[in-house]
């Protein structure tokens, strides 16, 4: 007589093939869809029939950065293949340079904050840190770096100095603080006109 399953006897189970079939179905779906690349150059150069690793190697890009860094990927390709990859990399770099232009201006809200802090406290960064207008609770180091960045932007900082000197020449110190918003709008308009 067979032991009951309660006492650790053999349990008859049906074999379920569903899991593996679902996994294979998803793999096939992924292959059909291909990769989603938002860069047009890579999308045009991509070969759907080849593997990801071969595509990346053909374009001259690293599939596994660790292999490249450790020097294990020292496969020497033909000179024709090298020329194709170098052309692709050159066009890719040119496109990236065109797309990402560094903006040399601060947003209006940042300008208002920095100019008001500079007018109120001068170069005392600890006082700026404790100021009630420091809504984001920036540290003195963060404020110092932001002011240094503002001073390195010649267009905005020079416009600020010109307006500050003009207001001081007119002896309207109380008007200077009220003109901060006008100053920030003026600086932002200068940026828009220059671009």
From TrEMBL:
It is found in: Nucleus, Nucleolus. Belongs to the NOP16 family. GO terms for biological process: ribosomal large subunit biogenesis. It comes from Trichinella pseudospiralis (Parasitic roundworm). GO terms for cellular component: nucleolus. This is Nucleolar protein 16. Pfam families: Nop16 (PF09420). Coiled coil: none annotated. The lineage of its organism: Eukaryota, Metazoa, Ecdysozoa, Nematoda, Enoplea. Keywords: Nucleus. It comes from the Eukaryota. The keyword Nucleus applies.
